[in-house]
Each structure stands twice: as structure tokens, then as C-alpha cells.
């Protein structure tokens, strides 16, 4: 016989005051399944409490930023940092919870995060997280957008690779990888700021020195590009004139061009060997993203006999990885003091969804036009 609401509430209240604290803690997160009705250990109860607390804190930070933005209040310096840390704390606490209670591992989620790290029930929180970052990182009024931002990235990456000696097929791979970098750095948004840094800006998130270095390197290959792609060279002349004296990181074309020349052009000639070692296009994108994050170790790994087995153990480098959402979620991950490049690539799962969208967008911009 079904219970009415008043009877159910009375039973729940009685259980809360008479059952062990651990059972009450489980009841607080929803209706208990038979598997969850067993008594929790102290470790499990502590992990559950830590997760519930971290989720609550994430919700509070999201609500605070939303209220500040909606009421047009001034935001603190680096307004995204608190959101980022709160998100990481929630994911980290959930991983600790599923380590202690594997039964809590649920189904897949739309962000492609491994279920042991993230509950699909929390998708709305990440939706709001992304929306807030889009608002906080909106381009300045002076930014110069492109009507074809994705094609620009693919075209520039391809042209730079050809100038560095790659054949047409491998140059196309460079264009695809370049589009992956654009999604990894900006989620596919052009000319953005950075809510977590006052240094990195624009469509490829470069600092001023990196942008200037990229401009110098571009000048050195510009004539060779003009010889085989005069249309792209003419577009470049147009964008240079358009950018004038503004920060070149806020013109989409010049930002991408200079960012690729600064960090990635010198690695493009290695693409044939990279493809052999990493046949998965997403792994290829991840490797080039690591050129952004930990350039020296990545170059050393590429120069080694075995890219995937090359091991990083410098605490400073591991810190850079953790600051970019690798080996930072849960006590087991944070306990790692070293990692091979295979392990690093596998730990970059937060990038997977972005790279998948980049792959789809690349196929779209490379489709022959119907005329």
C-alpha cells in the first residue's frame, strides 16, 4: 500500500534521529537503493560529506558570480579562478567518493568526463560554469572578429606547415591540429580574454612576448607562403593593415598566426613521426596542446626514442600539469609524483569533448563547397 506524504515524512524524520549518522548521511543524498542501505564505513561517510560540501560550495560560487554579473557589480581580479578551483574540488571529491564507494559510479555524461570523476546529475552546474566564463571572458569592444574563424585557423596551420616543408597530406593534419588548439585554448571562441590570467589573451591565448616572437617568425616565412598561396598572403596583408596599432592578439587572424608561429611551427615538421606514434587524431591534438603547457619536456619527449614512455618527474612540471586539470582530481591522482607521456595524454580527458568538436568542425570547413 502506498504511503501518503505525511506518513513518509514522519518515517524519514524518525530514521534521521534514530539511525546511525552514516545512514542519515546517505539518506540526505536521495532515496537509498538496497546496495546503499548498508552501513557506511567512516572513510565512506567522510568521502560523502566532503563531496556534498564541495558541491554546495561550487553552487554557491556559481550563484555569487551570476548575481554579480546580473547586477553589473565589479568583479574581483581573476574572477574565474574561484570558479575553477571550486569545480576542481567538486570533481576531486567525487573521485574520492567513487574510490570509496564504487557503487556511486554512474552513467556517461555529455562532457565526456569519466563517470568515476563526475555525476551526470551535475551537468547543469558545468553548463552554468561555461556560460559564466563566456561572459567573463568576452572580447573587448576593439576586438576584430573574423567571419570565418575556424577556416582561418585550419588555413593558417596548413600554410605554415607547408612552408616548413610538409607535403599536402601532412600539412592538412597540421591544420586539423591547429583547430584543436583553438578549441583547447578558447573553447572555439575568438578574441577572448582570460578570467584566470592577466597575461594570456586572444584566440590562441598568448602573452605579449609570445605574440611578438610569433610575428617575427612569420615575417621570416611570409615570402615563401606568398609563393605557393598568394590568396592567403593577400588576406594576411589585409588583416595586418586592419590590426594597425591594436594589440595583435585581439585580431583573430594575427593572434592565431602568431601563436602558431611562436610555439608550434617548429614542431610541425615532426608530424609524420608523431602520426606514426599517435595514430589517434585526438592524441595528436593533445600532444600539441602540451607544447603550450609544458613545452620543454614535450620537446624532449619528441626527441627521445620512445615518446609514450618518456617520463616526467620534475615537481614543477607536475604542478603545471595539475594547474591544467591533469592529475589533480582525487587523492590517488594527486599522489602521483611522475607520469609517462602516455599517462599524461590519458589524463587530459577534460580536453576530449573540445577536441571532438574541433574534429567535426575541421571536417565541416574542409568539405568541398556545393556550387
Give your account of this protein's structure.
By secondary structure, the protein is an all-alpha fold. It has two domains: 17-136, no CATH class; 149-366, no CATH class. It is built from 17 helices and two strands. The model is unreliable at 1-37 (pLDDT under 50).
End-to-end separation in angstroms reads 68 Å
Strands in their spatial order, largest beta sheet: 1-2
Count of helical regions: 17
Shape: globular
Task: Lay out the secondary structure.
Blueprint lengths: L4 H14 L2 H7 L14 H29 L8 H22 L22 H14 L12 H15 L4 H19 L21 H21 L1 H14 L8 H12 L7 H7 L3 H13 L1 H8 L8 E2 L2 H9 L7 H4 L4 E2 H7 L4 H15 L5
Antiparallel strand pairs: 1-2
Amino acid at each position: 500500500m502506498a504511503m501518503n506524504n505525511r506518513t513518509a515524512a514522519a518515517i524519514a524524520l524518525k530514521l534521521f534521529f534514530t539511525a546511525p549518522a552514516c545512514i542519515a548521511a546517505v539518506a540526505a543524498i536521495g532515496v537509498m537503493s538496497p546496495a546503499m542501505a548498508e552501513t557506511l564505513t567512516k572513510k565512506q561517510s567522510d568521502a560523502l560529506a566532503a563531496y556534498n560540501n564541495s558541491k554546495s560550495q561550487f553552487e554557491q560560487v556559481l550563484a555569487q558570480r551570476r548575481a554579480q554579473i546580473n547586477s553589473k557589480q565589479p568583479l574581483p581580479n581573476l574572477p574565474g579562478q574561484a570558479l575553477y578551483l571550486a569545480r576542481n574540488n567538486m570533481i576531486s571529491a567525487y573521485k574520492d567518493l567513487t574510490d570509496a564507494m564504487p557503487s556511486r559510479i554512474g552513467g556517461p555524461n555529455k562532457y565526456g568526463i569519466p563517470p568515476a570523476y563526475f555525476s551526470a546529475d551535475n551537468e547543469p552546474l558545468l553548463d552554468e560554469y561555461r556560460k559564466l566564463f563566456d561572459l567573463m571572458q568576452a572580447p573587448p569592444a576593439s576586438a576584430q572578429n573574423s567571419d570565418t574563424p575556424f577556416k582561418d585557423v585550419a588555413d593558417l596551420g596548413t600554410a605554415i606547415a607547408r612552408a616548413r616543408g610538409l607535403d599536402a597530406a601532412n600539412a592538412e593534419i597540421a591544420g586539423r591540429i591547429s583547430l584543436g588548439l583553438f578549441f583547447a585554448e578558447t573553447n572555439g571562441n575568438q578574441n577572448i580574454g582570460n578570467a584566470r590570467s592577466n597575461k594570456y589573451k586572444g584566440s590562441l591565448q598568448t602573452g605579449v612576448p609570445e605574440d611578438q616572437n610569433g610575428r617575427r617568425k612569420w615575417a621570416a616565412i611570409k615570402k615563401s607562403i606568398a609563393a605557393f598561396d598568394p590568396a592567403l598572403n593577400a588576406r594576411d596583408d589585409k588583416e595586418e593593415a586592419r590590426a594597425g596599432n591594436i594589440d595583435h592578439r585581439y585580431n583573430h587572424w594575427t593572434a592565431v598566426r602568431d601563436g602558431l608561429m611562436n610555439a608550434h611551427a617548429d614542431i610541425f615538421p615532426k608530424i609524420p613521426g608523431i602520426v606514426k606514434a599517435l595514430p589517434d587524431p585526438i592524441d595528436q591534438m593533445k600532444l600539441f596542446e602540451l607544447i603550450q603547457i609544458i613545452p620543454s619536456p614535450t620537446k624532449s619527449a619528441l626527441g627521445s626514442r620512445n615518446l609514450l614512455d618518456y617520463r616526467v618527474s620534475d615537481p614543477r612540471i607536475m604542478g603545471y600539469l595539475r594547474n591544467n586539470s591533469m592529475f589533480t582530481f582525487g587523492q590517488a591522482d594527486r599522489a602521483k609524483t611522475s607520469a609517462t607521456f602516455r599517462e599524461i595524454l590519458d589524463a587530459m580527458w577534460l580536453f576530449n569533448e573540445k577536441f571532438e568538436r574541433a574534429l567535426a568542425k575541421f571536417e565541416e570547413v574542409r568539405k568541398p563547397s556545393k556550387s
